[in-house]
Design brief:
Layout: H1 11-26, H2 36-39, H3 51-63, H4 67-79, H5 83-95, H6 103-117, H7 127-143, H8 154-166, H9 171-183, H10 191-203, H11 207-219, H12 227-240, H13 247-259, H14 262-281
Pfam families: Sel1
Organism: Methylobacterium frigidaeris
Keywords: Signal
Length: about 280
């Protein structure tokens, strides 16, 4: 099952979508609260010649283990609108990585990226950062942030995932969009659409998407039953699984392998080998 990437929005449709996203951002809370710099004031002059130098210093300090120093340098670069600095700070606050865990602060950094860079095309240098920011916002809108103005809003989550998935082709967004369709969260439950989006993410090496696509193929849920291909996707997902958080992938693959016949196992392994050969040639 091969499915082509979703088409890009028309120019008129894109203008409408960007306007919608602007309304979504503006409606999240006080306008000033969307500017992460308001919550993390940085002196106008901090010993850096420009945002790029501050960004380099921040990443050097981060890699050296000085995350407090990294945060200071990154905040200066973020205050100058440096998208990658905003993204890195968002990830640090979201994970409590060297700074206090603060989902609202992370949300605000990601919001600033979306507000200032949403009109950048998929080939722009910052496209990956922008797509990741929209995806992160989608996850925050999906669950909300307890004790803050960010309330659960599935419609907004869908908008964030759909924009990053269709316009930027972001695999994490495609996976999250597929989950909405699979579970019927905020949309009509549609396993066929779920399989479509899982496939797009799976082709880009997204392990969770590969695992769930494999399960759909084995069960014939939204797609024609293809047990060998489903087992192949599950095996690729298991090979890429990392640590306890991905144990569910390992369990799914082991269960599918145990239930498969020898012919399906052999065919699945042949498909896995072919996938790795194609990947090696593409490097």
């Amino acid at each position: 099952m091969r499915i082509s990437e979703a088409g890009l929005p028309s120019r008129a449709g894109r203008r409408f979508l960007l306007a919608l996203l602007g309304l979504v951002m503006a409606g999240a809370g006080p306008a000033a609260a969307l500017d992460a710099a308001v919550r993390t004031p940085v002196p106008a002059t901090a010993g850096y010649r420009n945002a790029r130098e501050a960004m380099r210093t921040g990443m050097r300090d981060y890699n050296a283990g000085d995350k407090e120093g990294a945060a200071r340098a990154l905040e200066y670069a973020a205050g100058q609108g440096h998208a990658l600095a905003l993204w890195k700070l968002g990830r640090m606050y979201a994970e409590g990585d060297g700074v206090p865990h603060d989902d609202l602060k992370a949300f605000e950094f990601f919001s600033k990226i979306a507000d200032e860079n949403a009109d950048e095309g998929p080939e722009a240098p910052n496209a990956g950062v922008v797509a990741s920011a929209f995806t992160a916002l989608g996850r925050y809108f999906l669950d909300g942030i307890k004790g803050s103005y960010v309330r659960p809003n599935v419609e907004r989550a869908y908008d964030m995932f759909n924009y990053a998935a269709t316009y930027y082709g972001d695999p994490n967004a495609q996976y999250n969009l597929a989950r909405l369709y699979l579970d019927g969260t905020g949309v009509t439950q549609d396993p066929r659409q779920a399989a479509r989006w899982f496939n797009l993410a799976a082709e880009k090496g997204h392990p969770a998407a590969q695992a769930l696509l494999g399960q759909l193929l084995i069960n014939g849920q939204g797609v024609t039953v293809q047990r060998a291909r489903g087992l192949a996707w599950l095996t690729l997902a298991r090979d890429a699984a990392e640590g306890p958080k991905d144990q569910w992938i390992v369990t799914l693959q082991e269960q599918a392998m145990a239930a498969a016949n020898e012919r399906d196992r052999a065919e699945a392994q042949s498909q896995v080998d072919g996938f790795y050969r194609r990947s090696a040639k593409g490097r």
